[in-house]
Amino acid sequence: MSAILPAHNIAYISTPKCACTSMKELIFCLENNCKFNRARDSKGAICIRINEKKNYIHDFYPSIAFAKQPQDLIQQLHRFCIVRDPVERIISCYNNRVVRYKVLSKDLLSQAEIKAPANPDLDQFINYLDQYKNIGDIKHHTHSLTHFLGNNSDFYHEIFNLRNLKRAEETLKKHFPSNKFDMPHLQQTQNESQISRENASKKMIRTIENLYEDDYSVYGKFF
């Protein structure tokens, strides 16, 4: 249910690859009035072990389908979200999940009985995306903005993008005036700059734009 905090009159509805890890960690620190700098895994993500089970920030504030959100509760709160141009978002997904975390390795594709190329380049990733979505991690990170945020941008009091994250941070902090924490910058793939919109083919950009036509229609003015 993302971060739904009635005591602070705030509801943050999250979408993967839209700075959601950083925003959720900030909310975690504000809500608990503390930092967990030592409770991290080897990649720097908050990782709290309870009964030998690893718990990550997305376990605390999961990104779920908009239809599954507690609508009656959210309607009473100040609602905000963060969006991103689908082209940049899907390329970021490729860099992070495919290049960094290797979720489309030969072994994983074999286990899922997927015949598409293993460890694909960006063009292959887009061309075979329907097949790769049989991997849960890819499906989750490539769902549309409307899947997570709904089909009506007017539902939100404020909508931010990656260029004005500071304003999103300021909005959130207004609801926690006594706590002083800054937003971390997480999930930045080390070699992400090697694959960007600028060096993606025009054909691939058009393909992504067509796949996420509804996102452009509903949230395009906020990109």
Explain the overall architecture.
By secondary structure, the chain is of the alpha/beta class. The protein has one domain. 40% of the residues lie in helices and 11% in strands. It has 12 helices and 6 strands. The protein has helices spanning 20-32, 57-60, 71-74, 86-100, 106-111, 122-127, 129-132, 136-142, 145-149, 165-173, 202-211, 213-219; strands spanning 3-5, 10-13, 47-50, 53-56, 78-83, 158-161. The strands form 2 sheets. A 4-stranded mixed β-sheet has the order 1-2-5-6. Strand 3 (47-50) and strand 4 form a beta hairpin. Helix 4 (86-100) packs antiparallel against helix 8 (136-142). The longest helix is centred in the middle third of the chain and has 15 residues, at 86-100. It is globular, with a radius of gyration of 18 Å. The two termini are 24 Å apart. The mean pLDDT is 91.
**Total strand count, please?**
6
Order of strands across the main sheet: 1-2-5-6
Summing up helix and strand content along with how strands pair, one would put the structural category as alpha/beta
| Residue runs with pLDDT of under 50 for 5 or more positions | none
Individual helix count: 12
Query: In which range does the helix fraction lie?
Result: 40-55%
- Largest sheet composition: 4 strands, mixed
Domain tally: 1
Terminal Cα span: 24 Å
User: What fraction of residues sit in β-strands?
Assistant: 5-15%
| Rg, Cα atoms, Å | 18 Å
